[in-house]
Design a protein that fits this description.
This is Aldehyde dehydrogenase family protein. This protein has 471 residues and is an alpha/beta fold. The chain has helices at residues 41-58, 63-78, 81-92, 96-103, 107-110, 112-116, 148-162, 176-188, 202-211, 224-235, 259-271, 291-303, 323-338, 373-376, 392-400, 415-422, and strands at 2-4, 6-9, 12-15, 21-25, 32-37, 124-126, 129-135, 138-142, 165-169, 195-197, 217-221, 240-244, 250-253, 283-287, 342-347, 361-366, 383-389, 404-405, 409-411, 431-432, 446-447, 450-451, 464-470. The structure holds nicotinamide-adenine-dinucleotide.
């Protein structure tokens, strides 16, 4: 079994001060994949100091220079795409066919930030003042396991473009793509200290990173509970904090929508990546007049998605990312049954033929009321709650009756009608009539889904300060 015993600090692979290890587990087979060293708080201090030392020169590079490094990094990543897909698939259970598409294709979007580096050169004369943009400084990044490469790129690429330096701590169970990325950083000769990588446990390293006096900004993607704790900790030193948190997104299907297409797209949106997609639309709101028809369609579409081994090219649905996540999801399925929701398909039994692994049957509940636990809390598993409604006003009310506001969807007779409803949903994104995911569009939450925006032109805004110089 491969052992990763070094951390990437100040442009070099260095021995960790920490002594513990994390064993990465393939959640489909429960077999160990690799062992990775856990950094200690002393390593946090070393990495942050390296980033601080590198900031003075990196922040002064030209946008063209930084763009060149970003393009080189993207090329290096492109060359290792299959390796990245396998690493992600084996550690978090995304079927390989899907890992190539939804987990790794984001590499192409990395280079977009090369062009966006020029955003930093934008200056504005206001009367006797010159308003300029400057990089925010040393950034601490903490990322989750569900789309680990995508999370890395969404933070690291704009930070590099802006002229920031950084320390990245990925989720302890999925650090392999980050280690590959650090190898790419070394290969292309990014200046030492600009990018530093610490592997290890958030609970052990988080506080040291978030409270470090030399860290200027924390960008966190993960659960709302951990995000709130980070915000509280960072408050004492007034750091900039960007939070990309959980969601419980609604999909409103209108009376005159093409029902089969809408339900099929809604079911697939949740089931791909086993429901572990922060923006997936897990509350399906259907007009009562078409509810029975929609239930039959949802059952059919969920049951025709093959559950299987992650290296089988036919598999649509793999396991959850860990046995612990499986337990969490099963708890929610039980809660749904206890609160009176009815199973359309799925449930707590293992899928047939899978007596081990973190597999959960694709599950759809009907007769769900929006106040039920399964409609209010983020399950992060392959579970859909079908909620009936009587009027479109009521549907919009239900859609907005959530502490979250990350994403949403509408299926209507046409895009124009869908857009009218999209404008009334309190969420950072809305997908109308199955609109495609767009790496050039901003992503981020309203309400307890977080603050700030990643990706697109807005993605770089988090990483600069604005200075006015009075002349
Ligand atoms: P998590 O909060 O458990 O962990 C996320 C990261 O935080 C990991 O790196 C973990 O090691 C670290 N961490 C854990 N405890 C910490 C602490 N006390 N201090 C600092 N860091 C700590 O979340 P998760 O279970 O890995 O990820 C799933 C969650 O992420 C879901 O809620 C999902 O909706 C959310 N998510 C949001 C987005 C978005 O863009 N809004 C994207 C992906 C995932």
């Amino acid at each position: 079994m491969k052992r990763y015993e070094k951390l990437f600090i100040n442009g070099q692979w260095v021995a960790a001060e920490g002594t513990g290890w994390t064993t990465l587990i393939n959640p489909a087979t429960e077999a160990p994949v690799a062992e990775v060293i856990n950094a200690s708080q002393a390593d946090v201090d070393k990495a942050v100091k390296a980033a601080r030392a590198a900031f003075s020169s990196w922040s002064q590079t030209s946008s063209a220079e930084r763009a060149e490094y970003i393009r080189k990094l993207q090329k290096a990543l492109e060359a290792r795409k299959e390796e990245l897909a396998i690493a992600i698939s084996q550690t978090m259970g995304c079927p390989i066919k899907w890992a190539r598409i939804i987990q790794v294709n984001c590499v192409a979007a990395f280079a977009k930030f090369a062009d966006r580096a020029a955003e930093m050169d934008v200056e504005k004369q206001v009367n006797n003042s010159l308003v300029v943009r400057e990089p925010v400084g040393v950034c601490a990044f903490i990322t989750p396991w569900n789309y680990p490469l995508y999370q890395l790129i969404g933070k690291v690429a704009p930070a590099l473009a802006a002229g920031c330096t950084m320390v990245l701590k990925p989720a302890s169970i999925t650090p392999l793509q980050d280690l590959i990325f650090a190898e790419c950083v070394e290969e292309i000769g990014l200046p030492a200290g600009v990018f530093n990588l610490l592997t290890g446990k958030g609970g052990e390293l988080g506080d040291a990173l978030v409270t470090h006096p030399e860290v200027d900004m924390v960008s966190f993607t993960g659960s709302t509970g951990t995000g709130a704790r980070i915000q509280r900790l960072a408050a004492d030193s007034i750091k900039r904090v960007c939070l990309e948190l959980g969601g419980k997104s609604p999909l409103i299907i209108t009376e005159d929508a093409p029902l089969a297409e809408a339900v099929r797209s809604g079911v697939r949106d949740v089931m791909i990546n086993s429901g572990q997609t922060c923006i997936c639309q897990t509350r399906m709101l259907v007009p009562r007049s078409r509810y029975e028809e929609a239930v039959v369609l949802a059952k059919q579409y969920a049951e025709e998605m093959p559950v299987g081994a992650i290296d089988d090219e036919n598999t649509d649905i793999g396991p959850l990312s860990s046995l612990a996540q499986r337990e969490t999801v099963l708890k929610y399925i039980r809660a749904g049954l206890e609160e009176g929701a009815k199973l359309v398909t799925g449930g707590v039994e293992r899928p047939e033929g899978f007596d081990k692994g973190a597999y959960v049957r694709p599950t759809i509940f009907r007769d769900v009321h929006n106040k039920m636990t399964i409609a209010q809390e983020e399950i992060f598993g392959p579970v859909i709650a079908m909620i009936p409604y009587d009027t479109i006003e009521e549907a919009i009310e239900i859609a907005n009756d959530s502490k979250y506001g990350l994403s949403s969807g509408v299926w209507a007779a046409n895009k124009e009608e869908g857009l009218k409803i999209a404008r009334r949903i309190r969420a950072g994104q809305c997908y109308v009539n199955g609109g495609d995911f767009n790496y050039d569009a901003p992503l981020g939450g309203y309400k307890q889904s977080g603050n700030g925006r990643e990706w697109g032109d807005f993605g770089i805004h988090e990483f600069y300060e604005i200075k006015s110089i009075q002349l």
